[in-house]
Design a protein that fits this description.
Largest sheet: none
Shape: elongated
Helix content: over 70%
Mean pLDDT: 93
Low-confidence stretches: none
Structural class: mainly alpha
Order of helices and strands: HHHH
Strand content: under 5%
Radius of gyration: 17 Å
């Protein structure tokens, strides 16, 4: 049950932060913060496991600092990308607002899931 609740929270955060109608100020929210913390915890565990497995130097605080910057900027960049797609569809392709919103979300989400599952 807890896994489903967590997945639902993460997925709803993803959907909201890939909607071109979302304002940048909405990225400063507890669900986005929780998503970043959750992903950092998972990535940190993998990082420590790999560094210990191969007896490499481990710098978890440096790793976390860099990851926090990358993930924070990633949310801003992803939202900027979907807003840019939406702007293109409305102004260049001459789609109506709703079609442009749906299409820009679909393009970004397809690309994201293709990357995540292909990687």
């Amino acid at each position: 049950m807890a896994g489903y609740v967590m997945w639902d929270l993460l997925y709803s955060t993803f959907l909201r932060t890939t909607d071109p109608s979302t304002s940048y100020s909405e990225l400063i929210a507890s669900d986005v913060f929780f998503s970043i913390l959750f992903h950092e915890w998972i990535y940190l565990a993998v990082y420590v496991f790999i560094t210990r497995l191969f007896e490499l130097p481990c710098h978890p605080l440096l790793f976390l600092a860099g990851l926090t910057v990358i993930m924070t900027l990633g949310y801003v960049g992803r939202l900027a990308r979907v807003k840019g797609l939406n702007h293109y569809y409305v102004n260049t392709a001459k789609y109506d607002e709703e079609t442009a919103r749906r299409e820009s979300q679909a393009v970004l989400r397809r690309a994201y899931f293709s990357y995540v599952f292909a990687a």
